[in-house]
Amino acid sequence: MQLRVEQTQPLFFFQHSQPIAHVWLTQTDRIPLSLNRLDLSSSLLPFGDAAQIRIVVEGRLCGSYHLCRSAMPIFAVLIIASPTLWVFLLTVTACGLLLRHRALVTSTTLSGPWRWMLGSLSAIGGTQLVVAFTASGSMDISTGWTDAVTFAAAATSFCPVISLLGAKRPQDRGWHFVVLSLWAILVLPVAESLVLRHGQMPDLQGARSWFMLILIALGVVNSLPTRFWFAAVLFGSGQVMMLAASLPLARDYVESSQTAIGVSCCALACIVALQLACRRRKMPASLNLVWHDFRDSFGMLWGLRVAEQINFAARSSGWPLTLRWQGFVDEQGKPLDLDLLPEETRKSLDQAIQNLLRRFVSPEWIAARMGNGIDLQ
User: Fold this and answer.
1) Of 206, 218, 254, 341, which is the most exposed, with the fewest CB atoms less than 10 Å away?
2) pLDDT by position in tens, the chain (length 377)
3) Which of 318, 341, 321 lies closest to 332 in space, CA to CA?
4) Domains of the chain by residue range
5) Tally of CB atoms within 10 A around 252
6) Antiparallel, parallel or unpaired: β 50-57 and 2-7
């Protein structure tokens, strides 16, 4: 069976109501007809305002499609035309930015979550490339094995979130074993099913699927009150898309996991977070700046824990202040100018904060946000 493409007007972008995944159009008059693939050749994308294309199969007109110039940017065309290439470019960009801005976490316990994020993006992006390569080649690999490898790679997205929950000295190094064990527990049923059922992907339901959904929600909620809230929501959405087939509630709305979209969301979330981290706050160097940077970097759970300990020390020592999420306030709940505190109280407060935060960050990290007016030593 042969298919002939008759292009009557300049072609730029494909817009059609029926879902067509891929058709590959070339400059030749006749190409083999593929029933489930339709891609757009980049050579047939001049910037015309309107176009019409007719598909003729064995002399019969099978369809006439109206094409119009799209207002979408060129990267949207790339997503539709080659999702694998788009995922590869996004993953490489995100990993490159992580490596470039490694100095942001070198003096903190965030170096652990940084490594897990780098490894997770590399694993997910690399898996997508391997799956796409095997699908386009002559290798005969069952769908179960492909789904299992994809699920195992997607499950690594939980590792940075769990690693952040243990990012406190001195247990931060040993916590990596807990993170690895959690990942192994999540993928263990998949591995067992593939071995015992000869390549059949299991249907993950029950407590395990709800546990994964809770982990996703935990990662999002932990960063919602911070300036990284959008990146957290984007990353959580990517996790849901990648693991939709194995999550409760989500499987009712999607037929299968949208891995390419999910990986794109996770990579974009990483890029957004890095760009936000590189921006300096419009705040003077002070304890409030130390607090804001700490709570945003380590999230709500660690932030509330540290604030609770500082407030306990304030009550025990009789300091006229309280640390809230937005910063230090006085006994009436109004923003407090820490420079107005007695010198002895100020130094005691500085020392208490340093003793608490040294389990997360270095003294240099604190001093860089305090300025040169206070001697933290």
Assistant:
1) 206
2) 444 444 443 333 333 333 333 333 333 333 333 333 333 333 333 334 444 555 555 555 555 554 444 444 444 444 444 667 778 888 899 999 999 999 889 889 999 999 999 999 999 988 888 877 776 655 555 556 777 888 888 999 999 999 999 999 888 889 999 999 999 988 887 777 767 666 555 566 777 888 889 999 999 999 999 999 999 999 999 999 888 888 887 666 665 557 788 888 999 999 999 999 888 777 777 888 899 999 999 999 999 999 999 999 999 888 888 899 998 988 888 888 888 888 888 888 888 998 999 999 998 898 888 864 443 33
3) 321
4) 2-68, 82-278, 287-370
5) 8
6) antiparallel
Amino acid identity, residue 99?
A: L
